Structures are given as C-alpha cells and as structure tokens.
Amino acid sequence: MAVELDADAAVDARPGEEAQRLAAWIADYRPLPGVPDELIGPDGRPRAHWSTLLDTLAGLGQSGVRNRFAAAERRIKDMGVTYRVHGETRERPWPLGRLPLLLTESEWRDIASGIAQRAELLDRILQDVYGEARLVAEGALPAAAVAGSPEFIRQMRGVKPVGGRWLRFYAVDIGRGPDGKWWVLGDRAQAPSGAGYAIENRLILSRAFPSLFRDMKVQRLAGFFRDFRAGLAAAASRSDPRICLMTPGPWSETYAEQVYLARYLGFLLVEGEDLATSEGKLHVRTVAGLKRADVVWRRVDADWLDPLEANAASKLGVPGFFDAIRNGSVAMANMPGAGLVESRALMSFLPTLAQRLLGENLRLPNVATWWCGQAAERDEIMRAFDSRAIAGAYGETAEGLGGARAAIGAELDPFQRARLIRAIETRGMDYVGQEIVQLSTTPVWDGEALTPRPFSLRIFAAATPEGWKIMPGGFCRVSDQRDARAVSMGSGAQSADVWVTGDEEAENATTLLPLKPDAPVVRVPGNLPSRAADNLFWMGRYLERAEATLRIVRCLCNRLTETQSIATQGRQPIERCERLLFAWGAAAPFAAAHPGAFIALTAASDADFYGSARAIAGQAKRAASIVRERLSPDMWQLLVRLEMRLDHLVADAPPEPEIVEMTERALHTLAALSGLMDENFNRVSGWAFIDLGKRVERAINTCRFARQFADDDPTIETLDALLELVDSQISYRSRYLAGAALAPTLDIAMLDPFNPRSVAFQTRRIDEHLSMLPALVDDGMMEPPRRLAVSIRAELEAEDARRVDGARILFVEQRLMALANAISERYFSHASDPAPADKRSKLA
C-alpha cells in the first residue's frame, strides 16, 4: 500500500516547501500488505503523533539526517555500549536503530494497565505454587505444567520471600496483531534483560535530537528506576541496606548493560565469588572483610545460584545461597523459581487464572496457546498442525524443532514433520501450539530512506510499596527481515528507543538523586569487593607496564636515529633496550636478526607477544571491563583509544620517526588516563588500589631499568638512556652541570623522594595508601603488607647512592615483588573460604 499524501492534502496541512519535503520523505514508504503499521494509518496517511518527528527529519534533509545518525553511531562507540553473542569472546557495538518507536500517552495508559495487572497475576501464581498450592490441588493448574518446568525450584517450596513478593522486576514482550490490538508474546521473570539498554538508547537518541525530544514531550525514564530502587530498599530489613546486582561475569552476553545499571542505580556489582554465606546470612567479600548483603538483584539463572542445592557444576553461584534465602536474611529480585512463569505452557491457563485470582479478564491477552500436555489441546494442535507454530513448552527449544525456537507446521518437510509429530505424541507436555502472529511494522532508516520492519516491544514493571510501576517506554526489538511473523524474529535484529509522547510537559526526572531536604550527609566511602580491588590493582599495574614498554620502544627508536649509535659505545643502549624487550616478552630473540625498527614496532603493537604494549593494553582493558561500573565513561573511552593507538600492522615496518610518533600518541593517552585517575577519581578504596598497582609496577620497572642500564660497566650513553626512561633528564641537568654520572643517576632514579619516578617516591605513596586501607582486626598492629612497605621505605630513605649496586637493586626489586604478593594475599582473597567473624572481621 503506497502512502496516500496527495498534493492538495499536503498543501492544506503544511503549505509550501516544507510540505514538499515531507511528501518526498515518505513518498516511497509502503507498509506490508495486510499488516498494521505504526507510521501509516488505515486511511493511508501518516498518524498525527508522528508529524513532529517527520517534520524534523524532512527539515534536516538527507545530509542532515545522516550527520545526526553518524553522531549517534559515534556516541555508541564512545559510551562503549556493547553486547556479546552467546559463544563469542568479542563484544559487538550495540545495534541501535536510528528512529524511535512512538506511542501516544492514551495508548500507553492501556498498555501499562495491562502489564501491571499481568505482573500482579504472575506474582500471585508464584505465591500459590510455592506456598499453599491450591491451584494445583483444585485442578486449576495441572501439576505437570508446574513440576515439568526446569524453572520450578523445589527448594523454594514453603519459602516466604522477604517483603512478600516473588516478583520485583518483571518484563513482558508484546506485539501489535493484525487487529491493531496489543498481544503478549512472552513473559520474562527469571532475570529480565534490556532495561539498561533502554536507558542507553534514550541517552543516545535524546542527544542526537535534543529539541525534538523536548518538543514531543517524551516521558522520562529516571522516575521508574528511582521507584524501583526505593522498592528494593524498602524490602530490606535494615534502613541503609547494601543492594547488590549479581552478574554472571564479563562473559555474559549483556554484561555491558549490567555494568551500566549498577553504575546508574548505585548498586554493588558482584559475581558469585564476591559473595559468601556465614551463619545463614549472605555477605560480600570486601577488602575490609565480610559485609552483609541485604538485597540481591540477580542476573544469574536460578539453577546456577547455589552449587550445593542446585547445579553442582556452577561456578557462578554461592554455596549456601538458598539457605540464606530460606532464613529470610536477604531480599531477592527475583526469587529463585520465578522463572516458572516464563513457560509457554502456563500461558494457556492465564485467562482462567486471571478470573480466579483477580476476578478480572486479562487486559492484555496472550497469543492463543494450547499446551499439548492435555489430550484435548494436543488433538486440537494435530488437527490444525499446518496453521500453528509449534514451540517448546518450557524453554527456547525442544526435541524435534531442529534447534529453532519454533516451527510452522506447513513449512516442514515430510521428515521434519513426522519427527515433530512423533515427539509431541511421545511427550506432549514439552510442547505448545500457538497462533501464528503477524506483527505490526515500524519505520526504520536503512541509510537512504524509511522502510517498514516488524517489531516486538519489551516493557518493564517494578514492584514498589505503592504497587507496580511501569517504565514509560521500553526496549523495542526490530527485525531485519520483512517477514512479519513473530517466530521469524531472530538474530540480526536492531533495537529502538520507545518514546511515549504526551500533551503536557514530562516530569523533569532526569536524575536518581533524592530531593530530600532532610537527607543525611554521608562521607563513608563504602566497601570495595575483593575481586574489584584485585582488578583495579592489576589495571593500574597493566597501564604502568604498558607505559614502561612504550618508553623502552621510544628510547630504542631515539637511539637508532642518532648518528652516535654507529659507534660501539653508542650501541650499548640499543642492545640493552632490545635485551629488555626480549626479556619482557615484547619481542622474540629471533627478531635480533631484523632491524631495530622491526623490534620496536613488534614490542609496541604486535598483540601476539604477551609483553607487547598492545597486548598489555588489552589486559588493562579486560581488567577494567570487570570493574567498569566504577570507571567514568571518559576513562573507558581512553582505554579503548589506547588500544586503537597501538593497532598497527607489523608487516608495514614504518621508519623509526613514525614508530616514535605512534608511541608518543599512546603515551599521551596514558598520561590523560593518569590525569583522569588523579583528578576525577574519588579518593576511596578503588582509587587507592589503582594507584597501588601503578606505584608497585613503576617501582619494580625502575629497578629493572637501573639494573639494565646502570650495572655491568655503565657508560654515559647507558646512564643517559636510564634518565630518559625514568623521565628525569631535565631534573638531572638542572642539578648537575656535568654529564651523567653513576651515583647521581642512581640517586635520582632510586632514592630521590622528590622525583615522582623514583623508587623511593613510589614506596612512600604505597605506604600512605596501605596506612589508609581498612584493617581486618582493630588491634593497632600493622598488617603484613604495611609492615613490609614501611621496611622497604625506611631502607631506601636511609640508603646512600654511592653504595647502590646491581645486587642491592635486585634485592629491592625482589622485596617489591614480595610486597605485591602480600597485598594480593591480604586484600584479594575473594576465592577463599570466609573466616569466622571473631578471627577476621565484624560482619556488618
């Protein structure tokens, strides 16, 4: 159906050139035959609530639209919005469509009302199934439909959730059917994903079209999350609860979203190894000992939560977790076993259950569903096999579906058809038949013009003391295929922001900060999980290690370009730089047969060598990704940029000046990162561990530089190279008129307390950090890391540079490495069993 926008109507509605632009913009937009479209109404004209958006796009023109969308693309990369396909190790940029889905406020009220009703119904079903079980006992719900689900967690029978709710965060997938009404396609109660991406979609598009967002009076999302957070806090037994977001870890497909939600909501992002149970309570392992966890918003499936009572092979859960839940010591969002209501088998019973439990009809009906565990329904599916979609009753797929989520009977070949029918006849309870739903379409931008694509919409509901709150928007998934059948939507889909437009100015809720005049002032830095401290510490070490490698590369290239390098003495710094790069694993010894520039380039940018700056930058980024919720977006962008600076084809073998330029760009990025950490990172335990890692690594590397360039018959050239590596040439020349001499060089590199590159300076900072970190036992005694740090600091402060030789430097280096191990053993013991409270710490 072509868009009917004749010239007269266009002129009447929008006179002149503007109407012509608008008509040209949508002239070729053709909805799919017989399928409702969000942009074009049944009369063939654009719907009124799309007019402001279309006017804006038409006014921008093709080039203006491309520029805005390109800016949105850059924003996705800068924000690091990513996802991971199951089974892949690399992250992909988030596929955000350029146009939002628009919904009017009146239509939204009906949707929100239906979702709130459905959330309440599902919560009551869960309360009954895990409680009195009257629905099963009275025949309203077949026992097999419950017990046959792998998401029925028997260990939760009889458990009363803290706060009384089984569901606290619920999502539902809906689509508009051929009749123009919204239908429920599926429920999400196990660990619903997408809410974080909904916020990021909103941030990206609202910044691409800020005036449009305001003019259309789009409802904000922050109020929903504020209410959700308040609801979780109200469920806890303590007035100032510790709320954790439990993640499967960095390899989760939606880890970037989980990180964003933790940072946005101010929750503690934890993995299973961050948690421990003691005395029937759940605790977080922190650098200050075990601290009580009051609320857990889980993104780990229930079967993986407790290896003692569920999946024994789980590395994601916590031994004793179920026991802590049964004891009522931790509030959950959502309770283990809540995933039961996701089963397609249950959908066929919801209309009657709504009448039974709520006394109401479903305001948002299901897709028509028949559970094949009942003889009559199974016979009905067999009679209409060709016109039904067959799907698994309890999971993504089932036997006979060939790994697909669903199959349409008419599209199966004879062998597939016979196999699936045999499977249903053998074990019908594992299958449902559903009506084949034709989804409506929404416009997407294909790079040149608007085109219709089918979509489904995920909307989120949060339980609060005032009842269910519905996010005014959601997470829209748009198919990349024109086929509008719901079952055809799979990989390759895009996301889209969802704008609920109104007639009045939207609530100005763009922040989660409480507006309470009597709110208490708190300066307590919080408790840092041991795993987070570990990764922050190694992030600091890796960044310093990458910088040290790049400094050697630059020093090598500088010497290669100097004419004095031809002389025998002049070659000593070159040989020692190369020797150090080989020892550090930044290049292979066989590379000695290649020109020095090749060795330098390999050490800087070849990720195949574990000690190259490029490989180490990747390690720093991986460590940072695990604690990303604690890093600012600017820091993450610089980490991404550092990798980009070092990406270079080794085979190109550019000349030394180009390698130096590449190296210095990377060093500038590292300097910017260091500046951000020093000036923008709050002085809490997290910053202390980043700086500790940096100081420990710098001290060790400086010792190695000194042993390499100031030992074994040093020359003026090797001492000058040492001063360059510790960035102290200007300081040395300002103090000494003569050329580089051994004792003054060693003093400035090893012992000078005023030189921010010296070993003595690092040990002083290390001691200061350790003195401020929390102690496990408040007995006034130094803990082992601090005792060792004080000893090293005192020895360096009392040392005389004229007595420092290679053996003495090696001794200091080994003591520093022992200090690093002591820090690890004391603060990063997140994988060990928790010690009793009276021996380790107070359980707060």
Automatic annotation (TrEMBL):
Sequence ranges assigned to domain Circularly permuted ATP-grasp type in this UniProt record: 100-479
Name of this chain's protein: Circularly permuted type 2 ATP-grasp protein
Xref: SUPFAM superfamilies: Glutathione synthetase ATP-binding domain-like
DUF403 domain sequence ranges: 528-828
Superkingdom classification of source: Bacteria
